[in-house]
Amino acid sequence: MPGGTRGPVPVPLESSNRNANVTQDVLDLLDTKQPLHTSEDFPSIPQPEIKAALDRLASRSMVVYETRDEEQVLLTGEAETIVEEGSHEWKVWEVVKREGKVGIKELPKLVGADSAKVGQGNAFKNKWIKKDGDSLVPVADEVKDTTRDILQGIQDTKTLSDAKLLTDLKKRKLVTLSKVISYTVSKGEKYAKEIPVEVTDLTAEMLASGEWESANFKPYNFNALGATQNSGALHPLNKVRAEFRTIFFNQGFVEMPTAHFVDSGFWNFDALFVPQQHPARDMQDTFFISDPPKADKPRPDPDTEAQLDAMEAGSRRLFASSAKRDTKSRDYEQYFQDIKKVHQDGAFGSIGYRYPWSEDECLRLVLRTHTTAVSTWVLHRLAEDPRPARYFSIDRVFRNETVDATHLAEFHQIEGVIADFGLTLGGLMRFLEDFFSKMGIEGLRFKPAYNPYTEPSMEIFGYHVGLGRWVEIGNSGMFRPEMLEPMGLPRDMRVYGFGLSLERPTMIKYGVSNIRELLGHRVDLEFIKTNPAVRLDKN
Amino acid sequence: MPTIAVDKAALFKALEREYTTEEFDELCFEFGIELDEDTSQSKKPEDLAQPPQLKIEIPANRYDMLCFEGIAMNLRVFLQKEKLPKWTLSPPPSGKLETLTIDEETSRVRPLCSGVILRNIKFTQERYDSFIALQDKLHQNLARQRTLVSIGTHDLDTVQGPFTYKALPPEEIEFIPLNQTKKMNGKQLMDFYEKDKHLGRYLHIIRDSPVYPVIYDSKRTVLSLPPIINGDHSKITLNTKNVLIEITALDKTKVEIVNHMLVAMFGGYAESIEPLNIVSPHNNESRESPDLTPRTMHAEVDYLNQVTGLEYSPEDIASLLERMGYTVSPSKSDKNILDVSVPITRADVLHQADIMEDFAIAYGFNKLPRVYPNKSAAVAAPLPINKLGDIVRFEAAASGWNEVMPLILCSHDENFAWLNRKDDGKTAIKLANPKTAEYQIVRTSLLPGLLKTLNSNKHHAVPIKVFEVSDVGFKDLTQERKTKNERHFAAAVMGKTSGFEQVHGLLDRTMLMLKSAFVTREEGLKNEKLEGYWIEELEDSTFLTGHSAAIKINIAGKHHTIGVFGILHPSVLHKFELPYPVSTVEINLEVFL
Predict the structure, then answer these.
(1) Residue A72, SS3 per DSSP
(2) Which stretches make up the Aminoacyl-transfer RNA synthetases class-II family profile domain (chain A) (predicted)?
C-alpha cells in the first residue's frame, strides 16, 4: 500500500527543501563522476548544507565520503582591485609614461592618494621612473606588473607555494588565509540514483499487512535525546528525608508525633534543663507567640497518646511475656514541680542552676526551636513503663535568625533517641558510625561539646573529601539526669540523643551553597525537576 | 559560643612547647574547645599587622576560659604541666576588712552586690587588656548583656571606704562618668549615652526605674552607676596597685560565679585576695565575699565506669580527673564513692554527670571502647499522618505535578488580605517578635506558599504545576499548647488557560487513590450510608465567581467539608503578581487517617 495518507512516510518528500535537492544532485553527479569533490563540483552550496546531505546519504550507506581540511589563500578587497586595475606602481608608471612628465604634486589627482603614495616608491625602486626637479619622468618603456600577475595567479588557484612571498603579501594586507572544509565523495554499497521510500516507524497497520517485512526503515538518530517525559517530581529535600526515614526504620525506630509547630517553654526548654536565662530563650533566637497568649501546664494528651500506642502495638505484641509489667501512671503536676525544683533549688543529685524560676516564662508559647521538645514528651511517656525504645523524627523547626546563605528562619531537624539500660558513651559513637556509614560517611571523630540537656555532649565530625577537611555533621549526647529523672525514668536508664539538620547534609552532598535554593518559595522548579534520585549510600 | 583571641607565642610559651596549627587544633579538639583560626595563616592586612593570634571558640558554659589566663591555665592542667591553683583569701594585716553596705532601696532595681579586693596586683599592658576583655566577655555571656550581673573595677587608693550601695532618684546622682570631663546627673547621663554605640544598648536596663543603683565611698565619691558605667575618679590604670571589684546583680548564683572567675583569672597576679565585708541585713545577704572554698561533690565509681564503658580504679579515675582541675579522693566510708572537690572555676559542674564527662574527656572521647548498643530489638513504625501524606505526595508526582516546599511562616497579608480572606482573630497563630514582615503568622493555608513559588518561577514556560503536602497551624484553645497542626494537600496550576479541569482531575485522582468514590451531590445527600466525595458550587471570594466548589466527603456516616478548588480571582493573581490564570485545590488530609 504505497503512498496515500495511511502509508509509510517517504523521504525525501518536500521539494521545497534545498537539502533534498542537494541530496539528489549528489546522487545524480555520482552516477557519472566518481569520486567527486564538493569544493569543485558544488562550489556555491554552503558547507553545512553539503554536510547534511552527505550525512543523510551516508547513514543509508548510499555514499561514503572523506573530509578534507584545506587552507585557501584569498584576496583582500585591495588585492582584487589590483587584479582588475593593475598595481599601484604600474598605475604610476602608466600615467607618467602617458603624460611624459607629471608634477609630483599632481600625481595624487591622477592616480588617487593611495596609489600615488605606495606606487611612487615602488616605481622608483623598480627603476621605472625617476625624478626630474619637481616632476616625474619615465625610465622604462615596457614594464612587467609582477604584483598583479602573482595576485592574479592566487585568484585563479587559491594557493601560493612561495611561503616567504605569502608572508609578505599577508603583511601587506593583500591576502588572507582561511580554512575550507570540503568532501571527497564516492558511491556507497547501497548506492542508487534515488533514495528509496522509507518508513519512519513500525505501525500496527504494517504488522497487520505484513508490510514490515519488505519495508525500508529510516535509520534512527542515536545522537539525539529521546522524547521529554511529562513527569512530575518530588522535592529533593523530601527525597533525602525519605532516605533518612528508611535508615531509621531499618534500625527499628518509631516515628514521633511531631505535628505541632507550637510548644510551651516547658516542653521546649524547661523540661530539657535549659535555664530560663539561656541565650536560646532570647527574643533574638526564638519566635515567641503573641496569640494565643499562654500554654496550659503539662497535662495528658489522649489523642497523641493513642497514636503512639497504635504505633507501638507491634513491638508490644512481639515482645509480650507472661510476666506482668508494672506501669506507673504519670503525675504531670509532680513533673512540673520537679522541673521547677531541679532548676531553682537543685534535685536528683544536681545542685541546679539556683535562680528564681518563673512559671510565666515556662508557659510562654514558642515556635519549637527543636524537635527535641517532642522527644522530651515521648520520653516522659516512656516513664510509665520504662523499657528499651528507639524514636526518631524529621520535621520543621524555627529560629528567629537573620536570614543569609546558610540560615533560614525554618529548617528540618533529624532527631534520634535511644533509651536503654546500661548504655555507654562508646556505644553511641558506634551507633553513629553505623548510622553515618549509610550515608557514605566513614571514620567519624567526636569532639566534647556543651549542650544544656546532654552530658556528655559530642559534636560529630566527618571528613569531607571534597572540602578536604573535617566538617561538623551533627550533634549528639546522653540526656542529662536533670532531664530524665524528673520524668520518673529510673536512674539506670540512659538515653542517647542525636540530631542533625536535613538541609546541611543535602547541601554538602549536592553542592548547594545557598539554603534558599533548597527550601522555601524561591527554589527553582528546574532544580526540583532535574535533581537525580537520592541514594545516600551511593557516590 | 564566645570566641577568644589569644597571643599565639604567649600561649605556646605558657604551654611550654611549640605546636603546629594542626597539632594545636588536635589538642583543642580533644579538650572540647575549637580552634577557629590561626591568624599566622591569614593574609588579611589587619592580621598581618599584629603578632599571630589564635582564635579559640569556647563552650558557652566554660566561663573560666574566657581569657588568655583561663585558657592557658586549663590547658596546662590538662597537659599535666601544673595542678590547678588553690585560691585562698588573706585579710589585711590590720584584720579590718573593707565594708560595703547595701541599702534596702536597691531591691527596687538591682538588689545584690558582691566584691573583692586584689592587693598589690602587677599589671602589664597584656594583663590589663585581658582584664578589661574578660569583664566584657562575662557581661556578654553569663551576665546576659549586663542585665543579670555587671562588674565595676576601681583603683582602691583613689577612694575611701566604707562603701555604700544605694538606689537613688536619677537626678540626685551626680558624677563624671569614665573618660568624660563633664559632671552629669543620672537623667542627663541617659541622654548623653543615648546614641553611644557601646553603652546605648544597656541603658534600658534601668532607664525607667524611679531609682538608679549607685555605689559611693565614704566621701560620697561615685564609684559606679551599675550596670551602665563607672565614675572617672576611681578608674584603674596600668599603675593601679590595689583593685576594688564590685559586682551588682539580680541573680544570686551568677554574682558569685562572676566574682570567682575574676579572682581565679587575675588573683594570680596579685599578692593577696582580700575579702569584702558585705552588710545587707534586710535580705539576709550579709557575708564576707567571696567564698573561695571548693565545692564538695560525690561521684560514684560505678557510674563513671559504666557510662564510659571503662573499668578504672578509684585512684586511676582520681588522677584522670585531676587533669580537668578536680581534686579527688576516694571516700573513706564507701568504696564506690569519690569525694570530688570542685574548684571555684568550674561553675558548670552541677551533677556527677558533668564529672563523668570530664573523666571521658581526660581519657579521650575517641579512645573510648565502642560497643554497639544492641541491647534489644525494636519494631519500627511510621507516624500514620506521615504515611498518609507520603501516599498523596507520590500520587501527585506520578500524575505529573512538581513538589515544592515553601515556608510555614508568612505575612498576615499573604495569608488573608491577598487571598480576599478575613482574619476573624480566632484562627491564625501570631508571632510576637518576627524580624521581618515575612514571618508574622503560621500559615493557615498552603496557598500563599504555592502562589509565591509560582511567582518566583514566572520565567519558566507555562503550564506550571506544583503541589505541597504539609502542615498548617490553627489556634485551638482546647489543646495544652492552644494550637494544632493540620496536614493539608494543595496544588496549583498556572497556564494560558485556567487549568480548572487540571486541579479537578488531580482531586479525582487523589480521591481514587484514597479509595473514596465519586458520588453526585444528590446521591450523597440522599443516602447517608453512601461513602464517597462530591463537590458543591461555592461562593468564595478567593476564587472567580461561579468557578469554585467545596469538596465534601462522607466517611463512616459523617459528612465533612475537606477543602475547596477553583479558578483564583484575578485580584488574587494581581496581589501575588501572577501573569497567567491559576487554579488551585486544597484539602485537609486528616479525615483520611
Answers:
(1) strand
(2) 388-532
Among the partner-chain residues A249, A312, A410, the one whose CB lies closest to the CB of B409 is A410
Q: Does the beta-carbon distance from B360 to A448 stay under 8 Å?
A: yes
Least confident of A205-219, B64-78, B440-454: A205-219
pLDDT, position B253: 95
Domains B3-78 and B295-366 share a fold: yes
The answer to whether the Cβ–Cβ distance between A528 and B399 falls below 8 Å is: no
Number of structural domains in chain A:
2
Q: Measure CB to CB from residue A524 to each of B352, B457, B481 and give the nearest one.
A: B457
Cβ count near A307 (within 10 Å): 19
Q: Which of A253, A449, A526 sits opposite B378 (nearest CB)?
A: A253
Q: Residue B144 corresponds to which cell in the numbers above? A: 546576659
* Residue range(s) defining the domain that contains residue A140: 77-175
Q: Which amino acid is at B122?
A: K
| Residue B525 three-state SS | helix
In the stretch 316-335 of chain A, residues with CB closer than 8 A to chain B read 318-319
Q: Identify whether A190 is part of a domain.
A: no
Phi-psi region of B529 (alpha: psi -120 to 50; beta: other; left: phi over 0): alpha
Q: Which of A425, A428, A461, A527 to mutate to test the interface with B (most CBs of B within 10 A)?
A: A425
Domain B99-289 has CATH 3.50.40.10: yes
Task: Tell me what the pLDDT averaged over chain B comes to.
Answer: 94
pLDDT exceeds cutoff 60 at A14:
no
Does residue A7 fall inside a structural domain? no
- The string of pLDDT tens digits covering residues A423-477 is 999 999 999 999 999 888 888 999 999 999 999 999 999 887 777 788 899 999 9
Query: Per the CB < 8 Å rule, is B386 touching A255?
Result: yes
Task: Return the percentage of chain A with pLDDT > 90, whole number.
Answer: 47
Under 8 Å between Cβ of B237 and B127: no
Give the residue from chain A lying closest to B454, CA to CA.
A521
**Closest-CA residue of chain B to A256:** B383
For the segment A299-350, what is each residue's pLDDT rounded down to a tens digit? Answer: 999 999 999 999 998 888 887 777 777 788 899 999 999 999 999 999 999 9
Radius of gyration of chain B (CA): 34
At A233 the three-state DSSP class reads: strand
The domain ranges of chain B are: 3-78, 99-289, 295-366, 384-592
Kindly tell me if the per-residue pLDDT of A260 is higher than 70.
yes
The secondary element (H helix, E strand) that includes residue A476 is strand A469-479
The SS3 call for residue B494 is strand
Q: Do A166 and A244 share a domain, yes or no?
A: no
* A383 interfaces chain B, CB cutoff of 8 Å: no
**Looking at the domain assignment, is residue A537 inside a domain?**
no
Cell numbers 501546664: residue: A297
The fold of the B3-78 domain, in CATH, is Phenylalanyl-tRNA Synthetase; Chain B, domain 1 (3.30.56)
Residue A481 to residue B361, Cβ atoms within 8 A:
no
> Under CATH, which number does the domain B295-366 receive?
3.30.56.10
Averaged pLDDT for residues B356-379: 86
Q: What's the pLDDT at A539? A: 61
* Final residue in a domain of this structure, among A175, A196, A228: A175
Q: How far is A47 from chain B (nearest CA, A)?
A: 35
- Cβ separation B29–A447 shorter than 8 A: yes
Q: Cα(B25)–Cα(B54) distance, rounded to whole angstroms?
A: 10
Q: Is residue A273 part of a domain?
A: yes
Cα distance between the two ends of chain B: 44
Contact B381 A311 (CB under 8 A): yes
Find, in chain B, the residue whose alpha carbon is nearest to that of A356.
Answer: B251
For an interface test with B, which of A321, A453, A525, A527 has the most B Cβ atoms less than 10 Å from its Cβ?
A525
User: Cβ–Cβ of B381/A314 closer than 8 Å?
Assistant: yes
| ipTM associated with this complex | 0.93
Region B384-592: CATH code: 3.30.930.10
Q: What is the pLDDT of residues A340-360, one digit of tens each?
A: 999 999 999 999 999 999 999
Residue of A nearest to B467 (CA): A234
**With 0-12 CB in 10 A as exposed, 13-18 as middle and 19+ as buried, what is A257?**
buried
